[in-house]
Write a structure and sequence with these properties.
The chain has one helix and two strands, in the order H-E-E. It is globular and about 30 Å long.
Length: 68
């Protein structure tokens, strides 16, 4: 699991750039892995952006836990 970066770290307030084509899968997998590590049943919605795990790119992962 990647460590989660917290505010006031500058990367969280720096403008992110588009993800290079060759890094999309790698970063997406790391985001999903990190989300799975912090997921709990009572957290119905959970999201994380690449800067939170140290990548200054415009990509995020979201868990939609709402079940109807």
């Amino acid at each position: 699991m990647s460590s989660i970066i917290r505010y006031p770290n500058k990367i969280l307030t720096t403008h992110s750039t588009p993800v290079p084509m060759g890094k999309r899968k790698e970063i997406a997998e790391k985001l999903i892995e990190t989300l799975k590590q912090i997921d709990r049943p009572w957290k119905l919605w959970l999201g994380m952006a690449a800067p939170q795990i140290g990548y200054n790119y415009q990509i995020l992962a979201v868990k939609n836990g709402y079940h109807n």
